[in-house]
Task: inverse folding
């Protein structure tokens, strides 16, 4: 186990292609710095993300998972972001049930023009996950959960 001074969390982020990924791209263009602990996966819509993807990321060693999509009313697929919010609310309850801290899952709405908001959310989430420490390996428990 890494000492508290050298521990760096492993965070997987699923970003909507149209908004949140655009904000990450804009942050890079503006040379805004945000933690390198985040691995971004571009998805067509936050509504296309199955809770199984998030659980799989946790099973494979992620210490935190971040899902971000368009603001309500701005979804390119009409209501995909609302479906994502509903699914992730249910997933929070499942994480609590299997003994994983709910703070390891973050859901945000970030528009493509909100690079500074993305930077702040990234810093806050990395700090929160770092404070929790490494995620416990609950592979067997998560594998038995049916979603």
Result:
């Amino acid at each position: 186990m890494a000492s508290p001074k050298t521990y760096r969390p492993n965070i997987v982020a699923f970003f909507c292609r149209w908004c949140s990924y655009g904000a990450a791209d804009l942050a890079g263009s503006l040379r805004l710095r945000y933690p390198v602990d985040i691995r971004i996966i571009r998805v067509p819509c936050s509504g296309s993300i199955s809770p199984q993807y998030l659980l799989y990321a946790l099973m494979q060693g992620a210490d935190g998972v971040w899902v971000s999509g368009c603001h309500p009313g701005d979804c390119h697929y009409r209501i995909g972001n609302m479906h994502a919010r509903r699914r992730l609310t249910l997933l929070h309850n499942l994480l609590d049930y299997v003994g994983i801290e709910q703070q390891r899952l973050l859901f945000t709405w970030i528009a493509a023009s909100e690079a500074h908001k993305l930077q702040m959310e990234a810093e806050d989430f990395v700090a929160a996950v770092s404070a929790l420490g490494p995620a416990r390996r609950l592979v067997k428990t998560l594998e038995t959960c049916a979603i």
In short: Residues 17 and 44 are 5 Å apart (CA to CA). Strands lie at 11-16, 38-43, 64-69, 105-109.
